Amino acid sequence: MDHLEGYERVAVVTGAAQGLGLAIAKSLLEKGKKVVFIDVNQELLQELEQSFQSNYKERAMFLQMDVSNICQIRESINTIITQWKRIDILVNNAGIREETSIEDIEEHEWDRIIDVNLKSTFFFSQSVIDVMKKQKWGRIINMSSFGGQVGPLTSGAHYCASKAGQLALTKVFARSLSKDGITVNAVAPAAIRTPEMDRIEPGKLAKMVEGIPIGRVGEDLEVAELVLYLASESAGYITGSTFDINGGLLMR
Ligand SMILES: NC(=O)c1ccc[n+]([C@@H]2O[C@H](COP(=O)([O-])OP(=O)(O)OC[C@H]3O[C@@H](n4cnc5c(N)ncnc54)[C@H](O)[C@@H]3O)[C@@H](O)[C@H]2O)c1
């Protein structure tokens, strides 16, 4: 049942102001969920909020916050529970990426990437466990990366380490919550068209595409469809898994 008696499931998507997070959040809205759009970018969130039609407005909440800040994570969870009483789906999608070489990575850049990509995944997941356990239902989906499985296409060591860390957290949480009706899975994309991809130098991107067996970059909606499935009622027997969506770059 996608609809509970009298109210809809509540989904929280981090990094939802653009790119994959936005595609995922909009797809969840279209499927009838209530959706919390979380992002650090206030301007983009405001633009989105203004662009929403009235029927979506009632089911969309916009929270500006930095996902690497534990106090802000806990405040946002309190706000959501106070207003909507439950949290059914958490998509840990917010992420940042740098291409800095091993030799040039400095401590502040290392810390920032690990905090935004990995620490946030742990503390957001930790913060929703209680409510999901009470509901005896939950879906946590972590947006990892090909870089966390195989090493870099274009990204730095810190990014790859943070994405590999998310894969480990996926298994740790999946095992720990498996008797509570809560599933935890990871998605590992490579080369999906988003604003972040526009930062890759065109020559480098063209070379990357040459190496993709399917011969093109992926689209944000293709990733959103996979996340929708993992967040659905039908996916209750899948947990601790990583789903590759990379045009065949990694076959295993
Ligand atoms: N696009 C790809 O090809 C690709 C490949 C592998 C993995 N991923 C992963 O998918 C996720 C989304 O990537 P994308 O390409 O859509 O990126 P993007 O940069 O287009 O969007 C990321 C969003 O996260 C937000 N964000 C960044 N730092 C934040 C913070 N501290 N707190 C709250 N929000 C923050 C940004 O404002 C932005 O809206 C990331 O975790 C990324 O590592 C993407």
From TrEMBL:
It comes from the Bacteria. Belongs to the short-chain dehydrogenases/reductases (SDR) family. SUPFAM superfamilies: NAD(P)-binding Rossmann-fold domains (SSF51735). This is 3-oxoacyl-[acyl-carrier-protein] reductase. InterPro entries: NAD(P)-bd_dom_sf, SDR, SDR_fam. Keywords: Oxidoreductase. Gene3D superfamilies: NAD(P)-binding Rossmann-like Domain. The keyword Cell cycle does not apply. One of its GO terms (molecular function) is oxidoreductase activity.
